[in-house]
Amino acid sequence: MEYKKIDEADIDFLRNVCGEDQVVLRDNILDDFCHDEMPGQFSAPDVMVYVQDVSAVSLILKYANQKKIAVTPRGQGTGLVGGAIPLFGGILLNLSKMNRILELDENNFTLTVEPGVLIMDIYEYVEARGLYYPPNPGEKSASIGGNVSTNAGGMSAVKYGVTRDYVRGLEVVTAEGEILSLGGKIAKNSSGYSLVQLITGSEGTLAVVTKIILRLIPKPKFLQSLLIPFDNLPAAIKTVPEIFKSKIIPRSIEFMTQDMLSSSEQYLGRRFPDHSGNAYLLLAFDGNSLPEIEKESDQIAELCILHGAKDAFLIDTNERNDAVWKPRSSYLEIIKASTSEIDECDVVVPIDRVAEFVEFAQNLEKECGLRIRSMGHAGDGNLHIYALRDKLDQKLWKEKIDHLFDRLYSHASEIGGKVSGEHGIGSAKLPYQYQIEGKAVMQMMYRIKQAFDPNEILNPGKVVQYN
């Protein structure tokens, strides 16, 4: 696809729409806006525009579509798959200033926000009012628009689901500049195709999200955690299906390893509460009845010990809770600090194949000649396999990464897995998306893309690009 290069007439148009001080030319655009948190990919836009209302977004997209100028929507740029990088230059549509909380409707349990509102601000706002937004992605400085665009997951998905499960309605702008209102505050909707669900997770390739209606729930009154040590990681992960068979659904089920904890102690400067296991399950339980939570955690503790756990420790104070969860929530930063560069396989597999896949990934360390670290959501099958570059030169690093990812994604496909559990496809995972989904599925996705964006101006080079 050929896109028009930005010229002075285009700059004048953007200045007229947004104001001169909201338009940043290429030479003045900071490097931070030319990449996201995925290493190794960098591409600058021709111009960056801060938009502050839906009418500006509409005018810009209508103009860009007529002129065939590439447009890349961007929030905080915390993604990990190159989703907010302007691969074809053009206009970087910066939505970070559309950051207002518009309405809290306590009768309908909804919160209406603009896409630039930060996740951490949503939590603070609703929890102060006794309400709860359950999706719990690791990066709290991300914007809600980015979370909606990637269908972000997180550590609470076991019990509560992911972002898609909490998006009731959207205001979006199409590539042709038309403003659409989709869904609403309604709890049920069988009115034709679910465009809300389709656009959620589409990574800005189908439309630009300008308003979001989120579903809230009452904030659980009590929270407890269990820390359960095991002799090894396979033993820990193989216990997870047994937990589900008990019919008790914790809020979170995460796994950690001893090497992960050792790294966290050095990075965070504090000692982990236990060192009796080589691997751990970390579970959280929440609800409105403390006796009920205690009963559930006791049952799970007994079940884990029956299936080989060395012990089970109840975490029932804020200080202890922080001590055990901080290493898990900080692990990505810990890994980054330990090496020169990382790349990640964000794969999801059936829950009963998690242990198998983790063992498979660990065994690839010697085959691929890379240091590999794993963490993940044992309760929903979403695993994060990290490759560490250390001192490898760029050419060898690329060769080893390609081989590793080919092996990981091929095995994921063989056991019923998918390319991404929560980070999305972006540009980085496109080859593996084709590998797993196949030609027919990718053709169908491309037809959907064409229906929404026939000139392919919206975030080109991401999610689907049928060849």
UniProtKB/TrEMBL annotation:
<dbReference type="InterPro" id="IPR016166">
    <property type="entry name" value="FAD-bd_PCMH"/>
</dbReference>
<dbReference type="GO" id="GO:0016491">
    <property type="term" value="F:oxidoreductase activity"/>
</dbReference>
<dbReference type="InterPro" id="IPR016171">
    <property type="entry name" value="Vanillyl_alc_oxidase_C-sub2"/>
</dbReference>
<dbReference type="InterPro" id="IPR036318">
    <property type="entry name" value="FAD-bd_PCMH-like_sf"/>
</dbReference>
<protein>
    <submittedName>
        <fullName>FAD/FMN-containing dehydrogenase</fullName>
    </submittedName>
</protein>
<dbReference type="Pfam" id="PF01565">
    <property type="entry name" value="FAD_binding_4"/>
</dbReference>
<dbReference type="InterPro" id="IPR051914">
    <property type="entry name" value="FAD-linked_OxidoTrans_Type4"/>
</dbReference>
<dbReference type="InterPro" id="IPR016164">
    <property type="entry name" value="FAD-linked_Oxase-like_C"/>
</dbReference>
<feature type="domain" description="FAD-binding PCMH-type">
    <location>
        <begin position="41"/>
        <end position="219"/>
    </location>
</feature>
<dbReference type="GO" id="GO:0071949">
    <property type="term" value="F:FAD binding"/>
</dbReference>
<keyword id="KW-0560">Oxidoreductase</keyword>
<keyword id="KW-0285">Flavoprotein</keyword>
<dbReference type="InterPro" id="IPR004113">
    <property type="entry name" value="FAD-bd_oxidored_4_C"/>
</dbReference>
<dbReference type="InterPro" id="IPR016169">
    <property type="entry name" value="FAD-bd_PCMH_sub2"/>
</dbReference>
<dbReference type="Pfam" id="PF02913">
    <property type="entry name" value="FAD-oxidase_C"/>
</dbReference>
<dbReference type="InterPro" id="IPR006094">
    <property type="entry name" value="Oxid_FAD_bind_N"/>
</dbReference>
<keyword id="KW-0274">FAD</keyword>
